[in-house]
Amino acid sequence: MVSLQDLQRINRFEWEIPQSYRPDMRVPVRIFATRQLLEQIKNDKSLEQATNAATLPGLVDRVVVMPDVHQGYGFPIGGVAATRLPHGIISPGAIGYDINCGVRLLASQIEFDAVKNHLSDLANTLNHLCPSGVGKKGHLRLKNVELEKVIRDGSQWTLQRGYATEADLRRTEEHGRLEGADPTMISKRAKDRGRPQLGTLGAGNHFIEVDVVDQVFHPQAAQVMGLITGHLVVMIHCGSRGFGHQICTDYVREFQSAVKRYSIQLPDRELVCAPLDSPEGQAYLGAMRGAANYAFANRQVLVHFARQAFEEALAGKVHNWHLHQVYDITHNMGKIETHEVDGVPVEVCVHRKGATRAFGPGFQELPAEYRSIGQPVLVPGSMGTASWVLVGTAESMQRSFGSSCHGAGRTMSRSKAKKLIWGEDLLKELQSRGIHIRAGSMAGLAEEAPQAYKDVDAVVETVHGAGIANKVARLRPVVVIKG
User: Is the separation of the CB atoms in 384 and 425 below 8 Å?
Assistant: First the structure.
């Protein structure tokens, strides 16, 4: 196990496990955290997992660990690693089972005080129109040919079907569609799981929240995004559902033999991988991009029904219930990007697992209005605390492969949370604080209790203090929909 004594302190917000810590490490591990957060991080195996990840073939520069890090499957949740093209590896475990789990933020002109007495109705309508829960089916019924279009076209499919606007796509990472998705590389089992689930939240830590803009820290960025103190916003957190989970399952199994074929030595079999330029690596890339497109479309369909819920619940109560899209960003993805390594531009595959892309100002793929401020970074907290909007910085490009944190980060397993926290008590506590909760089960609610997570404000202060993201606005929840 990695101990705090094994870490070298760089500054208040950065620490390093040197490459010399273990003879099989190919790069060091750089950790963004305060001493207080490290005391929580050391209680699981996330630092050991990051050290194991530092042995993967083809790595460049460093493995990066965010302050919300916690133990995952093989690779820590809150980790970033880049492998050099064309021969570096791609690892399903370093991207995650919920491919393109991500966050979408919608903003409004609705003042909280004008609708606070109608929030219960809004919660009921959102809960009805946006299905949540394990295995829950959505309002759409896709035939095989339509599912394949979703896999190839992502949010573009939703635009053609009337579930999106051009502005929605423009303010979505990659415009909601990754090139190179290949339905032929996806199993029938995955397609069978994905066909009925488009437009659903799922369970676990996925949610729809109605929040109030509580504080603004970057007035220029907030104005560009349309974030106004005291006004409502909507945050949607979900991914590719059973579709992406099955794709990851299939390729983790397939790559067990691939590592043998390519003589790849691993300290943990959960890090199974294949060279990017191998048939196996290319097959996974095609399947992963298909799952990513499905997730973009999934969140877009949920946006459509969230807008419908606002209209149904608030018609006649406010003049303008329209929700405009701020941004949609993923935090479980493998992306081909160019980054500067030792002063030289290098094409790499950046694995972000529980980490958000945080490109700085000037990035040409951003909507024109965001190029002067940097990419929006959306950081959901736990349902009883806060969520955050940040922007990426030039520093993040130099120090973290253009990446930042993605949430609060667990400190307690789901099983432990269910043992220690009584769902009904938690529900009463949250309701007493004016938070309208709609949950599929009390056990599921207990799993996601605020006590099971790190302090999201401390996580955000760390990335802000380290200079890899800047604070824009703090959001306070008033409605939470969970599976």
Answer: no
For 41, other C-beta atoms within 10 Å of its C-beta total 27
pLDDT of residue 47: 98
Helix (H, G, I), strand (E, B) or coil at 35: helix
**Is a pLDDT exceeding 90 seen at residue 444?**
no
Q: In the structure, what pLDDT confidence band is assigned to residue 460 with cuts at 50, 70 and 90? A: very high
Q: What is the pLDDT of the chain when averaged over all its residues?
A: 95
Please state the length of the chain.
Answer: 483
pLDDT in tens, 315-363: 888 888 899 999 999 999 999 999 999 999 999 999 999 999 999 999 9
Query: Rounded CA gap, 298 and 300, in Å?
Result: 5
What residues contact residue 343 under an 8 Å CB cut-off, 6+ apart?
none
Phi, psi of 131 (to 5 degrees): -60, 140
* Beta strand extents in 319-375 (DSSP E only): 324-330, 332-341, 344-353, 356-357
- Taking residues 2-18, what's their average pLDDT? 95
DSSP of 51-100 = HHHTTSTTB-S-EEEEEEEE--SSS-EEEEEEEETTTSEE-GGGT-SSTT
Radius of gyration of the chain (CA): 21
Query: Does the pTM exceed 0.85?
Result: yes
* Residue 246: how many other CB atoms lie within 10 Å: 23
Q: At what angle do helices 119-129 and 279-314 cross, to 10 degrees?
A: 140
**CB distance 331 to 103 below 8 Å:** yes
Sign of CA dihedral 386, 389, 395, 397: positive
- Token reading at 181: 């998705």
pLDDT band at 92 (very low <50, low <70, confident <90, very high): very high
Q: What is the per-residue burial (b if ≥16 Cβ within 10 Å, else e) of 310-341?
A: beebbeeebeebebebbbbbbbbbbbeeebee
Q: Is the separation of the CB atoms in 101 and 241 below 8 Å?
A: no
Active site residue 351: no
Supply the pLDDT for residue 312. Answer: 95
Bridge partner list, 209: 235, 480
Domains for the chain: give ranges and CATH numbers: 4-88+100-411+453-482 (3.90.1860.10)
Rounded Cα distance, 74 and 94, in Å: 7
List 218, 406, 436, 464, catalytic entry: 406
Distance CA(389)–CA(455), nearest Å, equals 16
Nearest residue to 395 via CA among 328, 458, 470 = 470
